[in-house]
Amino acid sequence: MQSPKPRRKAGPATPGADSAEKLEELLISSAICNGEDLGPFVRKTFATGKPETLLHHLKLFARSKESEIEEVCKAHYQDFINAVDDLKSLLSDVESLKSSLSDSNSKLQSIAAPLLSSLDSLVEAQTVSKNVDLAVRAVTHCVRVMEMVSRANQHLQSGSFYMALKCVDSIESEFLEKTPSSTLKRMLEKRIPEIRGYVERKVSKELGDWLVEIRVVSRNLGQLAIGEASAARQREEELRMKQKEAEEQSRLSLRDCVYALKEEDDDDDVYESGLEGSEAFDLTPLYRAFHIHQTLSLEDPFKRYYFDNRELQLKSDSQVSSMTPFLESHQTFFAQIAGFFIVEDRVLRTGGGLISKNEVEFLWDLAVANMCAVLEDQFSRMQTANHLLLIKDYVSLLGVSLRRYGYTVDALLQVLSKHRDKYHELLLSDCRKQMIEALAADKFEQMLMKKEYEYSMNVLSFQLQTSDIAPAFPYIAPFSTTVPDCCRIVRSFIEDSVSFMSHGGQLDFYDVVKKYLDRLLGEVLDQALLKLINTSVHGVSQAMQVAANMAVFERACDFFFRHAAQLSGVPLRMAERGRRHFPLTKSQNAAEDTLSGLLKSKIDGFMTLIENVNWTSDDVPQGGNEYMNEVIIYLETLVSTAQQILPAKVLKRVLRDVLAHISERVVGTLCGDVVKRLSMAAIKGVEVDIQLLESFTDQLKPLLTDKEAKEMKTAFVEIRQMVNLLLSSHPENFVNPVIRERSYNALDYRKVAAVSEKLRDPSDSIFGTFGTRGSRQNPKNKSLDTLIKRLKDVS
């Protein structure tokens, strides 16, 4: 190797520069060596306008450093030459080593060749084995996948959608990602959503079919539940009636009470079993759909879907068809709603959160609002009480049926209570028409009953009998057909009123029923009877029959109030304490007044014979005057007929009025202008007439008590006292206050004066005194004159 040429070494700077330049050169060199900033030197150089000086100094500094660089390079180059020499010395050794390695490699390859071929075979076999294992595992995995797929298909075909979805979920979670076959994997990825969609469509269709079917089931369920409530109510009412009857009996054995309680327990068991049977309906399709949607993670959308559909169904069920009268469709309407909420109650309790309590309450509030609106509208249009009662009864049964499921029905009951007055007004109007028709059909004849059932239906059912002994048949009742006809109308009114008021949320409603019963009797029946009496009664027999009917109505009214109290659940003793006067008093008084008036008219016809009496005769009629005999014959005939149908108290009042009228007519005749003069024989004839009246009164004693018989004689006390006064030996005693109050308190002094004046003997007059001046005056005549004189002084 040749050595390189030595580089030329730069010489030092030529001296000759002045000291300032050297100093500046030293400063620049120092700054460069120390790594300082050369900026101040550059600015100073350019400031002085002599950059050449700076360049010159920099060049000098560079030359001074070149020598140092050359020394360093020279030292390193010598080391490199030495290293190259060393490498050349090792070259021969490397060549020998290379040949040795080549020989060793040739020997190794010749020896390892069979081993390499064996190794290649081993590697190939291992690869094949690995691939076979992978293939076996892949096939096994695919077989398991296909088994799951086959199982899912079987579940789908059999309709076991939940198990099919479970298989699909298992395939998706456990096998899909590990499936080695891309084709199978793509097929699964495509089919799994399709299967889920298919299952969702199928269960949705089943749910839709169930939603359609459940409406029919709900209607039948509601009808069955309401029917059970009606049967239970009927059993309760029958048991209540039995218990009320038992309470009213004074002798009720303990055994009977125990039997009644046992019967009530049996009824409750029957009622409960009937209600349990009414709840047999299938919710499997709904719960199946809900469970599958839960599996599909679609629980909340399904809940909303179910609630929305049921709300739409409820709104549809709450609509009233305008094509069908509400009276014909109201049972179906309310039964549909009742069944709807029975189903929702079951879903709420067993649906596992499918519907919440708040949602059910929302639906119920919606249904109540719709039902209230429908009832308000329909009630406002109805003009027949029976129609309103039918709907009210069904609504109350609806409330009973749904109250046991926890639904509040106060709003419905308030609507029913709101129309209470309208219902009773319609009921009063219907009863008024029925009573007018019943009274118009009356023939004023006693009712004939040929069979026992007729007697039971027309007499016993209204407690009109006066004896507990059954009569012989055929039986002629003291009343006409009007009485049982009107009683049936009133009883129907009571039962309809109680039916409307009961089961309406109000426990104590007897006062309301009693108020409207008073109106029915006092306004409707009383006015109808008054109209009948004033317009249709023209004969004594008709008036007598009406009066007899009024006496029977008095007993019937007692039955009406007891019946109302019994149906209202009020003890009879409390109802008796609240009883008022007889509500048909006006018509009763009118009937008796009409009968009395007709009898007085009849009597007046006989009393015209009083004009034929010879009042100045000296002969006393032994058998009484003709007019009085005719009157007595008529009265006896009247009593024989009247006592068969008229109660004794009514007959007494009528006869007393008639006898008083007879007395007034006789006194009026004596005081009137028809009689100019009276003889003592005529007065004695009147005495005989009065005795006939008294004898007639005595004949009434079997019908009257002694007290009533005495009261009967007071009817003609005026004529009796008048005759007693005129026949007495001292007529002037009339002016004695004590004697007058004791014996003549019914007489008017003016009438006494008029009759006494007619009875005075003509010989006692002013012109008759001339022929009898020396004779002695009759003491009775003298007393009579004294009486007349004193009465004139008083007047």
UniProtKB/TrEMBL annotation:
InterPro entries: EXOC6/Sec15, EXOC6/Sec15_C, EXOC6/Sec15_C_dom1, EXOC6_Sec15_N, EXOC6PINT-1/Sec15/Tip20_C_dom2. Gene3D superfamilies: Dsl1p vesicle tethering complex, Tip20p subunit, domain D, Exocyst complex subunit Sec15 C-terminal domain, N-terminal subdomain. Residues 57-226 form the Exocyst complex component EXOC6/Sec15 N-terminal domain. GO terms for biological process: acceptance of pollen; pollen germination; pollen tube growth; vesicle tethering involved in exocytosis. It is found in: Cytoplasm, Cytosol. One of its GO terms (cellular component) is cytosol. Keywords: Cytoplasm, Exocytosis, Transport. Residues 412-758 form the Exocyst complex subunit EXOC6/Sec15 C-terminal domain. The keyword S-adenosyl-L-methionine does not apply. Component of the exocyst complex involved in the docking of exocytic vesicles with fusion sites on the plasma membrane during regulated or polarized secretion. Involved in polarized cell growth and organ morphogenesis. During cytokinesis, involved in cell plate initiation, cell plate maturation and formation of new primary cell wall. Belongs to the SEC15 family. This is Exocyst complex component. It comes from Eruca vesicaria subsp. sativa.
